Amino acid sequence: MPDGRAGAVGDHGGVTTPTSTQVTLSHVMNATEANLLGTIHGGNIMKMVDDCAGVVANRFAQGPAVTAGMDEMTFLTPVRVGDVLHVSAQINWAGRSSMEVGVRAEADRWDSVAPRVHVASAYLVMVAVDADGQTRPVPELSVETEEERRRFREAQIRRRHRLARRDEIRTSRGEGGAA
Ligand SMILES: CC(C)(COP(=O)(O)OP(=O)(O)OC[C@H]1O[C@@H](n2cnc3c(N)ncnc32)[C@H](O)[C@@H]1OP(=O)(O)O)[C@@H](O)C(=O)NCCC(=O)NCCS
């Protein structure tokens, strides 16, 4: 296994594909999750997004993984009380200890059988840690389909931008450069 990474459990040939990491959480949104306008508070949607990304990352990493960051998340349309929110996530990219998880939130309207509405999308960086909170290696991710390759490629671009931004800010504070 390259870079001394462990092989994944429950996969084929010791590697895991992004598609095989997919998890969906579904929840009927209720009145306690509403904002002053009566629609669902964005923070409750973000919580489901983070929960789902966490499940995906923990399963892939075969142990605990923490959220290191979430990219900009745009809310495209309000979710209403009674709507069924479906949050789906999968690993897009994996490095030594970090992973990018792609998440898409869609809603089934409670009062019609119209097609699902795209509510929001987000990318999260999750990092596998041990019991002491130290980073640890994750298994290898094997991209097979054209779609998986596209997501992997685009995740690498986002990662370069995230690290460049972090390093530039550190440098501007006189804290030194790249980690
Ligand atoms: C996330 C955390 C473990 C990273 O620790 P660290 O000492 O900065 O670790 P490193 O600098 O070695 O980075 C670890 C990995 O994360 C990546 N990483 C760190 N910061 C990043 C950022 N801003 N964007 C993208 N990737 C980042 C590194 O590139 C590295 O990836 P790799 O191992 O795949 O090459 C640490 O900052 C932490 O514990 N944060 C708190 C997490 C938390 O409490 N979350 C909320 C509850 S789940």
UniProtKB/TrEMBL annotation:
Domain of life of the native organism: Bacteria
GO BP term (any one): acyl-CoA metabolic process
UniProt entry keywords in alphabetical sequence: Hydrolase
One Pfam match: 4HBT
SUPFAM superfamilies membership: Thioesterase/thiol ester dehydrase-isomerase
UniProt keyword Hydrolase, yes or no: yes
Signal peptide: none
Annotated GO CC locations: cytosol
InterPro entries: Cytosol_ACT, HOTDOG_ACOT, HotDog_dom_sf, Thioestr_dom
GO MF terms, alphabetically ordered: long-chain fatty acyl-CoA hydrolase activity
Hydrolase is among the record's keywords: yes
UniProt domain HotDog ACOT-type: residue ranges: 19-132
PANTHER family given in the database record: ACYL COENZYME A THIOESTER HYDROLASE, PROTEIN VDLD
Family statement: Belongs to the acyl coenzyme A hydrolase family.
Protein name, entry field: Acyl-CoA thioesterase
Lineage: Bacteria, Bacillati, Actinomycetota, Actinomycetes, Micrococcales
